[in-house]
Amino acid sequence: MALVLIIDDDPSISYTLSRAAQRQGHTVTFARTLREGERKSTEQEFALVFLDVCLPDGDGLTLLPKLKAQEPSPEVIIITGAGEPEDAATAIANGAWEYIQKSDSIHQIAVTLERALRYREKRLFAPQTSSFPLQRENIVGDSPALRRALGTVEQYAASDVNVLITGETGVGKEMFARAIHENSNRRHQPFIVVDCAALPDTLAEGILYGYTKGAFTGAAKESSGLIMQADGGTLFLDEIGELSLDVQKKFLRLLQEHTVRPIGGTRELHSHFRLLAATNRDLEVMVEEGTFRSDLLFRVKALHLPLPSLMERKEDIRLLVEKFISVLCRQYSIPPKKVDPELLEVLESYNWPGNVRELRHAIDHAVSAARHEPLLFSQHIPQMIRISVAKQRVSQSPARLAPLPDKKEDLPPLNEFRAEAYSRLEEQYLRDLMLLTEGVIKEACTISGLSRSRLYALLKERGVLQNKTSEDG
Protein backbone atom coordinates (compact mmCIF):
# COMPACT_ATOMS: atom_id res chain seq x y z
CA MET A 1 0.00 0.00 0.00
CA ALA A 2 1.08 3.59 -0.63
CA LEU A 3 2.03 6.59 1.49
CA VAL A 4 -0.13 9.63 0.68
CA LEU A 5 0.50 13.27 1.67
CA ILE A 6 -2.43 15.72 1.86
CA ILE A 7 -1.39 19.39 1.78
CA ASP A 8 -4.60 21.30 2.53
CA ASP A 9 -5.64 23.70 5.30
CA ASP A 10 -9.36 22.78 5.13
CA PRO A 11 -10.07 20.05 7.75
CA SER A 12 -13.27 18.86 6.05
CA ILE A 13 -11.57 18.44 2.66
CA SER A 14 -8.58 16.75 4.28
CA TYR A 15 -10.97 14.32 5.97
CA THR A 16 -12.70 13.53 2.66
CA LEU A 17 -9.39 12.94 0.89
CA SER A 18 -8.06 10.80 3.72
CA ARG A 19 -11.21 8.63 3.64
CA ALA A 20 -10.73 8.04 -0.08
CA ALA A 21 -7.12 7.00 0.50
CA GLN A 22 -7.64 4.96 3.66
CA ARG A 23 -10.51 2.97 2.13
CA GLN A 24 -7.96 1.69 -0.40
CA GLY A 25 -5.60 0.74 2.44
CA HIS A 26 -3.15 3.65 2.05
CA THR A 27 -1.40 5.52 4.87
CA VAL A 28 -2.08 9.26 5.09
CA THR A 29 0.02 12.18 6.37
CA PHE A 30 -1.26 15.76 6.65
CA ALA A 31 0.25 19.23 6.17
CA ARG A 32 -1.67 22.48 6.68
CA THR A 33 0.72 24.95 5.03
CA LEU A 34 2.97 25.16 2.00
CA ARG A 35 6.10 25.26 4.15
CA GLU A 36 5.02 22.25 6.22
CA GLY A 37 4.09 20.34 3.07
CA GLU A 38 7.48 21.02 1.48
CA ARG A 39 9.29 19.88 4.62
CA LYS A 40 7.26 16.68 5.01
CA SER A 41 7.59 15.82 1.33
CA THR A 42 11.37 15.58 1.78
CA GLU A 43 11.25 13.54 4.98
CA GLN A 44 9.48 10.50 3.51
CA GLU A 45 8.99 8.94 0.09
CA PHE A 46 5.36 9.63 -0.80
CA ALA A 47 3.71 7.82 -3.66
CA LEU A 48 1.03 10.49 -4.10
CA VAL A 49 0.44 14.07 -2.97
CA PHE A 50 -2.91 15.88 -2.86
CA LEU A 51 -1.89 19.55 -3.22
CA ASP A 52 -4.24 22.46 -2.55
CA VAL A 53 -3.78 25.59 -4.67
CA CYS A 54 -4.74 28.23 -2.07
CA LEU A 55 -2.73 27.68 1.10
CA PRO A 56 -2.28 30.12 4.01
CA ASP A 57 1.34 30.87 3.11
CA GLY A 58 1.28 30.75 -0.68
CA ASP A 59 0.27 29.20 -4.00
CA GLY A 60 0.41 25.40 -3.93
CA LEU A 61 1.38 25.28 -7.61
CA THR A 62 4.80 26.69 -6.71
CA LEU A 63 5.58 23.45 -4.87
CA LEU A 64 4.69 21.22 -7.84
CA PRO A 65 8.07 21.48 -9.67
CA LYS A 66 9.93 20.60 -6.47
CA LEU A 67 7.75 17.55 -5.89
CA LYS A 68 8.22 16.34 -9.46
CA ALA A 69 11.98 16.85 -9.19
CA GLN A 70 12.22 14.27 -6.39
CA GLU A 71 13.61 10.85 -7.23
CA PRO A 72 11.42 8.88 -7.39
CA SER A 73 8.78 11.56 -7.78
CA PRO A 74 5.26 11.22 -6.35
CA GLU A 75 2.17 11.56 -8.49
CA VAL A 76 0.54 14.91 -7.68
CA ILE A 77 -3.18 15.61 -7.77
CA ILE A 78 -3.95 19.32 -7.64
CA ILE A 79 -7.16 20.02 -5.78
CA THR A 80 -8.91 23.38 -5.46
CA GLY A 81 -12.20 24.97 -4.56
CA ALA A 82 -12.53 27.03 -7.72
CA GLY A 83 -11.18 25.61 -10.95
CA GLU A 84 -9.22 27.99 -13.17
CA PRO A 85 -8.40 26.89 -16.75
CA GLU A 86 -4.96 28.56 -16.70
CA ASP A 87 -4.08 26.94 -13.37
CA ALA A 88 -5.13 23.58 -14.78
CA ALA A 89 -2.91 24.09 -17.82
CA THR A 90 0.04 25.11 -15.60
CA ALA A 91 -0.48 22.11 -13.34
CA ILE A 92 -0.59 19.56 -16.16
CA ALA A 93 2.38 21.19 -17.93
CA ASN A 94 4.42 20.89 -14.74
CA GLY A 95 3.73 17.21 -14.29
CA ALA A 96 0.53 16.98 -12.25
CA TRP A 97 -1.42 13.76 -12.72
CA GLU A 98 -4.80 15.48 -12.55
CA TYR A 99 -6.50 18.71 -11.53
CA ILE A 100 -9.77 18.19 -9.66
CA GLN A 101 -12.18 20.36 -7.69
CA LYS A 102 -13.16 19.95 -4.06
CA SER A 103 -16.78 19.64 -5.12
CA ASP A 104 -16.04 16.34 -6.86
CA SER A 105 -17.54 13.25 -5.24
CA ILE A 106 -15.48 10.98 -3.02
CA HIS A 107 -15.98 8.27 -5.66
CA GLN A 108 -14.42 10.48 -8.36
CA ILE A 109 -11.50 11.32 -6.06
CA ALA A 110 -11.00 7.65 -5.19
CA VAL A 111 -10.95 6.64 -8.87
CA THR A 112 -8.42 9.35 -9.70
CA LEU A 113 -6.27 8.27 -6.75
CA GLU A 114 -6.34 4.62 -7.79
CA ARG A 115 -5.44 5.38 -11.41
CA ALA A 116 -2.59 7.69 -10.44
CA LEU A 117 -1.05 5.09 -8.12
CA ARG A 118 -1.46 2.34 -10.70
CA TYR A 119 0.32 4.52 -13.26
CA ARG A 120 3.15 5.29 -10.84
CA GLU A 121 3.68 1.63 -10.09
CA LYS A 122 3.94 0.79 -13.78
CA ARG A 123 6.22 3.78 -14.35
CA LEU A 124 8.62 2.80 -11.59
CA PHE A 125 8.75 -0.92 -12.26
CA ALA A 126 8.55 -0.97 -16.05
CA PRO A 127 11.60 -2.67 -17.59
CA GLN A 128 14.25 -0.25 -18.82
CA THR A 129 14.56 -0.85 -22.55
CA SER A 130 17.23 1.80 -23.20
CA SER A 131 20.73 0.31 -23.20
CA PHE A 132 22.52 3.66 -23.28
CA PRO A 133 22.26 6.88 -21.27
CA LEU A 134 20.38 9.87 -22.65
CA GLN A 135 22.48 11.76 -25.17
CA ARG A 136 22.17 15.47 -24.35
CA GLU A 137 25.15 17.16 -25.97
CA ASN A 138 25.19 20.94 -25.37
CA ILE A 139 22.05 20.77 -23.18
CA VAL A 140 23.56 21.92 -19.88
CA GLY A 141 21.91 22.03 -16.47
CA ASP A 142 20.28 20.01 -13.73
CA SER A 143 17.31 22.14 -12.69
CA PRO A 144 13.91 20.50 -12.07
CA ALA A 145 12.46 22.23 -15.15
CA LEU A 146 15.26 20.96 -17.38
CA ARG A 147 15.07 17.44 -15.98
CA ARG A 148 11.36 17.32 -16.76
CA ALA A 149 12.03 18.40 -20.34
CA LEU A 150 14.78 15.80 -20.73
CA GLY A 151 12.49 13.14 -19.32
CA THR A 152 10.00 14.00 -22.04
CA VAL A 153 12.79 13.87 -24.65
CA GLU A 154 13.66 10.34 -23.54
CA GLN A 155 10.01 9.32 -23.70
CA TYR A 156 9.42 10.81 -27.17
CA ALA A 157 12.69 9.41 -28.56
CA ALA A 158 11.26 5.91 -28.21
CA SER A 159 8.40 6.81 -30.57
CA ASP A 160 8.08 7.68 -34.25
CA VAL A 161 5.19 10.10 -33.71
CA ASN A 162 5.36 13.74 -34.83
CA VAL A 163 6.46 16.19 -32.11
CA LEU A 164 5.86 19.95 -31.80
CA ILE A 165 8.50 21.72 -29.69
CA THR A 166 7.43 25.11 -28.32
CA GLY A 167 9.23 27.76 -26.31
CA GLU A 168 10.52 31.31 -26.31
CA THR A 169 13.21 32.47 -28.70
CA GLY A 170 16.63 31.26 -27.61
CA VAL A 171 15.60 28.33 -25.38
CA GLY A 172 17.33 25.80 -27.64
CA LYS A 173 14.50 24.18 -29.58
CA GLU A 174 16.81 22.80 -32.27
CA MET A 175 19.11 21.26 -29.64
CA PHE A 176 16.17 19.43 -28.08
CA ALA A 177 15.02 18.28 -31.51
CA ARG A 178 18.51 16.89 -32.13
CA ALA A 179 18.40 15.20 -28.72
CA ILE A 180 15.16 13.42 -29.67
CA HIS A 181 16.80 12.30 -32.92
CA GLU A 182 20.09 11.25 -31.30
CA ASN A 183 18.27 9.12 -28.74
CA SER A 184 15.96 7.44 -31.27
CA ASN A 185 16.41 4.44 -33.53
CA ARG A 186 17.05 6.91 -36.35
CA ARG A 187 20.20 8.34 -34.75
CA HIS A 188 22.47 6.90 -37.47
CA GLN A 189 20.34 8.47 -40.21
CA PRO A 190 20.22 12.12 -41.40
CA PHE A 191 18.83 15.00 -39.34
CA ILE A 192 17.62 17.53 -41.91
CA VAL A 193 16.72 21.09 -40.85
CA VAL A 194 14.23 23.19 -42.80
CA ASP A 195 14.41 26.88 -41.85
CA CYS A 196 10.77 27.78 -42.44
CA ALA A 197 11.40 31.49 -41.85
CA ALA A 198 13.81 31.52 -44.82
CA LEU A 199 11.72 29.35 -47.16
CA PRO A 200 10.42 31.56 -50.01
CA ASP A 201 7.12 30.51 -51.56
CA THR A 202 8.50 30.62 -55.09
CA LEU A 203 11.41 28.28 -54.32
CA ALA A 204 9.82 26.10 -51.64
CA GLU A 205 8.81 23.27 -53.97
CA GLY A 206 12.27 22.93 -55.49
CA ILE A 207 14.01 23.13 -52.10
CA LEU A 208 11.70 20.56 -50.52
CA TYR A 209 10.90 18.19 -53.38
CA GLY A 210 14.03 18.55 -55.50
CA TYR A 211 14.12 18.73 -59.30
CA THR A 212 15.53 16.97 -62.34
CA LYS A 213 18.27 18.34 -64.56
CA GLY A 214 16.82 20.89 -66.98
CA ALA A 215 13.47 21.06 -65.19
CA PHE A 216 13.66 24.87 -65.30
CA THR A 217 16.13 27.57 -66.21
CA GLY A 218 19.16 27.26 -63.95
CA ALA A 219 18.57 23.59 -63.07
CA ALA A 220 22.00 22.55 -64.33
CA LYS A 221 21.99 19.32 -62.34
CA GLU A 222 19.60 17.12 -60.42
CA SER A 223 18.73 17.96 -56.80
CA SER A 224 17.25 15.42 -54.40
CA GLY A 225 15.48 17.99 -52.19
CA LEU A 226 15.35 18.14 -48.39
CA ILE A 227 12.46 15.67 -48.08
CA MET A 228 14.32 12.84 -49.79
CA GLN A 229 17.52 13.73 -47.93
CA ALA A 230 15.59 13.04 -44.68
CA ASP A 231 14.55 9.53 -45.85
CA GLY A 232 15.05 7.12 -42.93
CA GLY A 233 15.97 9.97 -40.60
CA THR A 234 14.36 13.06 -39.07
CA LEU A 235 12.93 16.14 -40.79
CA PHE A 236 12.99 19.18 -38.50
CA LEU A 237 10.78 22.14 -39.42
CA ASP A 238 12.27 25.07 -37.51
CA GLU A 239 9.89 27.99 -36.87
CA ILE A 240 6.97 26.29 -38.57
CA GLY A 241 4.72 29.21 -37.61
CA GLU A 242 6.46 31.33 -40.26
CA LEU A 243 5.20 29.22 -43.19
CA SER A 244 2.79 30.86 -45.61
CA LEU A 245 -0.63 29.23 -46.07
CA ASP A 246 0.41 28.09 -49.55
CA VAL A 247 3.48 26.23 -48.25
CA GLN A 248 1.45 24.88 -45.30
CA LYS A 249 -0.84 23.23 -47.87
CA LYS A 250 2.15 21.54 -49.50
CA PHE A 251 3.36 20.24 -46.13
CA LEU A 252 -0.08 18.90 -45.25
CA ARG A 253 -0.13 16.62 -48.28
CA LEU A 254 3.48 15.65 -47.63
CA LEU A 255 2.68 14.55 -44.08
CA GLN A 256 -0.34 12.60 -45.27
CA GLU A 257 1.40 10.73 -48.09
CA HIS A 258 5.13 10.90 -47.27
CA THR A 259 5.68 11.08 -51.05
CA VAL A 260 7.13 13.77 -53.29
CA ARG A 261 7.44 14.28 -57.03
CA PRO A 262 10.56 16.27 -57.96
CA ILE A 263 9.99 19.16 -60.35
CA GLY A 264 10.34 17.72 -63.84
CA GLY A 265 10.06 14.16 -62.53
CA THR A 266 7.63 11.53 -63.79
CA ARG A 267 7.20 9.41 -60.67
CA GLU A 268 6.58 9.92 -56.99
CA LEU A 269 9.26 9.04 -54.44
CA HIS A 270 8.58 7.82 -50.90
CA SER A 271 10.44 9.32 -47.94
CA HIS A 272 10.25 7.52 -44.61
CA PHE A 273 11.07 10.41 -42.28
CA ARG A 274 10.00 11.34 -38.78
CA LEU A 275 8.72 14.90 -38.35
CA LEU A 276 9.80 17.27 -35.58
CA ALA A 277 8.66 20.90 -35.67
CA ALA A 278 9.37 23.95 -33.52
CA THR A 279 7.91 27.39 -33.01
CA ASN A 280 7.96 30.32 -30.60
CA ARG A 281 4.47 31.34 -31.70
CA ASP A 282 1.05 30.28 -30.39
CA LEU A 283 -0.25 28.14 -33.25
CA GLU A 284 -3.70 27.77 -31.66
CA VAL A 285 -4.11 31.55 -31.78
CA MET A 286 -2.85 31.56 -35.38
CA VAL A 287 -5.49 28.96 -36.26
CA GLU A 288 -8.18 31.23 -34.79
CA GLU A 289 -6.78 34.16 -36.80
CA GLY A 290 -6.76 32.08 -39.99
CA THR A 291 -2.99 32.27 -40.48
CA PHE A 292 -2.26 28.61 -39.69
CA ARG A 293 -4.14 25.54 -40.90
CA SER A 294 -5.89 23.59 -38.16
CA ASP A 295 -5.44 20.30 -40.04
CA LEU A 296 -1.68 20.89 -40.24
CA LEU A 297 -1.50 21.73 -36.53
CA PHE A 298 -3.36 18.51 -35.75
CA ARG A 299 -0.73 16.52 -37.64
CA VAL A 300 2.43 18.20 -36.32
CA LYS A 301 1.26 18.29 -32.67
CA ALA A 302 0.66 14.61 -32.07
CA LEU A 303 3.10 15.01 -29.18
CA HIS A 304 4.03 18.30 -27.51
CA LEU A 305 7.33 19.29 -25.85
CA PRO A 306 7.10 22.70 -24.13
CA LEU A 307 10.56 24.00 -23.18
CA PRO A 308 11.26 26.10 -20.07
CA SER A 309 12.61 29.62 -20.37
CA LEU A 310 15.91 30.47 -18.69
CA MET A 311 13.91 32.30 -15.99
CA GLU A 312 12.30 28.95 -15.13
CA ARG A 313 15.68 27.23 -14.78
CA LYS A 314 17.86 29.93 -13.20
CA GLU A 315 19.65 27.24 -11.19
CA ASP A 316 21.36 26.26 -14.46
CA ILE A 317 22.95 29.67 -15.13
CA ARG A 318 26.22 28.89 -13.32
CA LEU A 319 26.66 25.60 -15.16
CA LEU A 320 25.85 27.26 -18.47
CA VAL A 321 28.37 30.05 -17.79
CA GLU A 322 31.09 27.50 -17.02
CA LYS A 323 30.28 25.59 -20.21
CA PHE A 324 30.27 28.69 -22.42
CA ILE A 325 33.54 29.99 -20.98
CA SER A 326 35.23 26.65 -21.55
CA VAL A 327 34.00 26.42 -25.15
CA LEU A 328 34.82 30.04 -26.02
CA CYS A 329 38.30 29.97 -24.49
CA ARG A 330 39.11 26.89 -26.58
CA GLN A 331 37.60 28.53 -29.64
CA TYR A 332 39.70 31.70 -29.18
CA SER A 333 42.82 29.75 -28.10
CA ILE A 334 43.14 31.64 -24.82
CA PRO A 335 43.71 30.38 -21.24
CA PRO A 336 40.61 29.42 -19.21
CA LYS A 337 39.02 32.24 -17.22
CA LYS A 338 37.37 32.35 -13.82
CA VAL A 339 34.25 34.32 -12.84
CA ASP A 340 33.95 36.98 -10.16
CA PRO A 341 31.05 36.15 -7.78
CA GLU A 342 29.51 39.59 -8.35
CA LEU A 343 29.21 38.81 -12.07
CA LEU A 344 27.24 35.65 -11.30
CA GLU A 345 24.92 37.69 -9.07
CA VAL A 346 24.26 40.07 -11.96
CA LEU A 347 23.65 37.21 -14.40
CA GLU A 348 21.23 35.53 -11.99
CA SER A 349 19.36 38.82 -11.41
CA TYR A 350 18.75 39.55 -15.10
CA ASN A 351 15.47 38.42 -16.69
CA TRP A 352 17.04 37.00 -19.94
CA PRO A 353 14.36 37.73 -22.55
CA GLY A 354 16.64 36.08 -25.14
CA ASN A 355 17.11 33.02 -22.91
CA VAL A 356 20.14 30.69 -23.28
CA ARG A 357 21.13 32.22 -26.61
CA GLU A 358 21.35 35.69 -25.04
CA LEU A 359 23.38 34.30 -22.12
CA ARG A 360 25.88 32.75 -24.51
CA HIS A 361 26.22 36.04 -26.39
CA ALA A 362 26.77 37.86 -23.07
CA ILE A 363 29.54 35.45 -22.09
CA ASP A 364 31.06 35.69 -25.57
CA HIS A 365 31.12 39.48 -25.12
CA ALA A 366 32.73 39.12 -21.67
CA VAL A 367 35.41 36.67 -22.83
CA SER A 368 36.25 38.92 -25.76
CA ALA A 369 36.34 42.06 -23.61
CA ALA A 370 38.59 40.39 -21.02
CA ARG A 371 40.77 38.61 -23.56
CA HIS A 372 44.04 39.03 -21.63
CA GLU A 373 42.53 39.10 -18.13
CA PRO A 374 42.18 35.90 -16.05
CA LEU A 375 38.97 36.95 -14.26
CA LEU A 376 35.60 38.00 -15.70
CA PHE A 377 33.82 40.91 -13.97
CA SER A 378 30.37 42.39 -14.50
CA GLN A 379 32.05 45.25 -16.37
CA HIS A 380 32.87 42.78 -19.14
CA ILE A 381 29.26 41.86 -20.02
CA PRO A 382 27.07 44.04 -22.29
CA GLN A 383 26.17 47.37 -20.69
CA MET A 384 22.48 46.84 -21.47
CA ILE A 385 22.35 43.88 -19.05
CA ARG A 386 24.10 45.82 -16.26
CA ILE A 387 21.73 48.78 -16.72
CA SER A 388 18.68 46.51 -16.60
CA VAL A 389 19.83 44.84 -13.36
CA ALA A 390 20.74 48.21 -11.82
CA LYS A 391 17.27 49.60 -12.60
CA GLN A 392 15.66 46.50 -11.15
CA ARG A 393 17.65 46.81 -7.93
CA VAL A 394 16.82 50.50 -7.57
CA SER A 395 13.11 49.85 -8.12
CA GLN A 396 13.17 47.12 -5.47
CA SER A 397 15.00 49.28 -2.89
CA PRO A 398 12.95 51.45 -0.51
CA ALA A 399 13.29 55.20 -1.02
CA ARG A 400 15.82 56.84 1.32
CA LEU A 401 14.60 59.47 3.77
CA ALA A 402 18.05 61.03 3.87
CA PRO A 403 21.28 60.71 1.85
CA LEU A 404 23.82 58.12 2.95
CA PRO A 405 26.46 59.92 5.11
CA ASP A 406 30.00 60.04 3.74
CA LYS A 407 31.43 58.77 7.03
CA LYS A 408 30.06 56.54 9.75
CA GLU A 409 30.76 59.30 12.30
CA ASP A 410 28.17 61.48 10.53
CA LEU A 411 25.36 59.00 11.18
CA PRO A 412 23.11 60.49 13.94
CA PRO A 413 21.83 58.55 16.98
CA LEU A 414 18.71 56.53 16.26
CA ASN A 415 16.41 58.78 18.32
CA GLU A 416 17.53 61.88 16.41
CA PHE A 417 17.16 60.10 13.06
CA ARG A 418 13.71 58.84 14.01
CA ALA A 419 12.56 62.32 15.12
CA GLU A 420 13.84 63.90 11.90
CA ALA A 421 12.21 61.22 9.73
CA TYR A 422 8.92 61.57 11.63
CA SER A 423 9.03 65.33 11.18
CA ARG A 424 9.56 65.02 7.40
CA LEU A 425 6.79 62.47 7.00
CA GLU A 426 4.37 64.55 9.07
CA GLU A 427 5.14 67.67 7.04
CA GLN A 428 4.62 65.77 3.79
CA TYR A 429 1.30 64.41 5.02
CA LEU A 430 0.05 67.86 6.04
CA ARG A 431 1.06 69.41 2.70
CA ASP A 432 -0.72 66.61 0.82
CA LEU A 433 -3.76 66.96 3.07
CA MET A 434 -4.12 70.69 2.45
CA LEU A 435 -3.48 70.35 -1.26
CA LEU A 436 -6.07 67.62 -1.78
CA THR A 437 -8.74 69.33 0.37
CA GLU A 438 -7.94 72.71 -1.22
CA GLY A 439 -7.46 74.22 2.26
CA VAL A 440 -10.91 73.34 3.57
CA ILE A 441 -10.23 72.86 7.30
CA LYS A 442 -13.47 71.01 8.04
CA GLU A 443 -12.76 68.40 5.36
CA ALA A 444 -9.09 68.16 6.42
CA CYS A 445 -10.16 67.43 10.00
CA THR A 446 -12.53 64.70 8.84
CA ILE A 447 -9.85 62.97 6.75
CA SER A 448 -6.99 63.29 9.26
CA GLY A 449 -9.04 62.55 12.38
CA LEU A 450 -7.57 65.64 14.09
CA SER A 451 -9.43 68.31 15.98
CA ARG A 452 -9.50 71.80 14.49
CA SER A 453 -7.17 73.24 17.14
CA ARG A 454 -4.69 70.38 16.82
CA LEU A 455 -4.64 70.63 13.02
CA TYR A 456 -4.01 74.39 13.16
CA ALA A 457 -1.18 73.83 15.67
CA LEU A 458 0.52 71.22 13.46
CA LEU A 459 0.13 73.31 10.33
CA LYS A 460 1.78 76.25 12.08
CA GLU A 461 4.51 74.06 13.64
CA ARG A 462 5.45 72.48 10.30
CA GLY A 463 5.19 75.72 8.35
CA VAL A 464 2.33 74.42 6.24
CA LEU A 465 -0.36 76.90 7.29
CA GLN A 466 -1.73 78.44 4.12
CA ASN A 467 -3.17 81.90 3.60
CA LYS A 468 -6.16 80.45 1.82
CA THR A 469 -7.92 78.21 4.28
CA SER A 470 -11.61 78.05 5.02
CA GLU A 471 -13.94 76.32 7.38
CA ASP A 472 -16.22 74.80 4.75
CA GLY A 473 -14.94 76.00 1.39
Q: What fraction, in percent, of the residue positions are helical?
A: 40-55%
Rg over CA atoms: 31 Å
Protein structure class: alpha/beta
Strand-residue proportion: 5-15%
Number of E strands: 16
Shape from CA axes?
Answer: extended
Q: In whole angstroms, how far apart are the ends?
A: 77 Å
Question: How would you characterize this protein structure?
Answer:
- The structure is a single chain.
- The protein is an alpha/beta fold and 473 residues long.
- It contains 19 helices and 16 strands.
- It has helices at residues 11-22, 34-43, 64-68, 85-93, 106-125, 144-157, 173-182, 201-209, 225-229, 245-257, 283-289, 294-300, 317-331, 341-349, 355-369, 383-396, 414-436, 441-448, 452-461; strands at residues 3-7, 27-31, 48-52, 54-55, 58-59, 75-80, 98-101, 163-166, 191-195, 234-238, 259-260, 269-270, 274-279, 303-306, 338-339, 375-376.
- Strands 2-1-3-6-7 form a five-stranded parallel beta sheet, with helices on both faces.
- The chain is extended.
- The protein starts with a strand and ends in a 12-residue tail after the last helix.
- The model has no long low-confidence stretch (mean pLDDT 88).
